[in-house]
Amino acid sequence: MIIKHLEKSPRIDESAYIAPNAAVCGEVKIGKNTKIMFGAAIIAEGGCIEIGDDCIVLENAVLRSTINHSLKISNNVLVGPNAHLVGCTVEDNVFIATGASIFHGAKLCKGSEVRINGVVHIKTILPENKTVPIGWVAVGNPLEILPPDRHNEIWAIQKPLNFPKFVYGVDRKPDGQTIMPEITKMMVKALKAHEKDELV
């Protein structure tokens, strides 16, 4: 499905392939010979999404942008099945494996790899030719790559990055009370814009 959102329609090179049940929505640009496979969702919500030439986005991958965080993928990039990318930058020749997650403000530099179920957190820069091992977590700048069982070390780096403020514009409450009502009300309002989407 090719969908117009917020008066912006996807621009898809004629040599690209979009599977019949993939969704491409909003201000999305897809380059030459790129293949968007079955069940993939490429959703531009405010910010734009740009996918370069000769890229592969495999089954059920989710690529998203937000108002504050556009998504850019350069050339010769493979995004594996069930991977999740939002508001990040991916340079040339990057491999993102099955189930990997790349978050807002992250940058994967040329030739880097994120292996199965690897995570690259907000504002994290993965240098050229660097690899995140299977299931490990890349966090911070300067970069630390840690196994998931070292949660306290990951959290010590991640907490000051302030995910809710950076992504949603909502500060954590000092007493630890939930901020989910603020976040969900804001997102309900923003996502309401999809009610006016049009198939192209």
From TrEMBL:
InterPro entries: Transf_Hexapept/Carb_Anhydrase, Trimer_LpxA-like_sf
Gene Ontology terms for molecular function: transferase activity
Keyword Ubl conjugation included in the entry's annotation: no
Keywords per UniProt: Transferase
Protein name: Carbonic anhydrase/acetyltransferase isoleucine patch superfamily-like protein
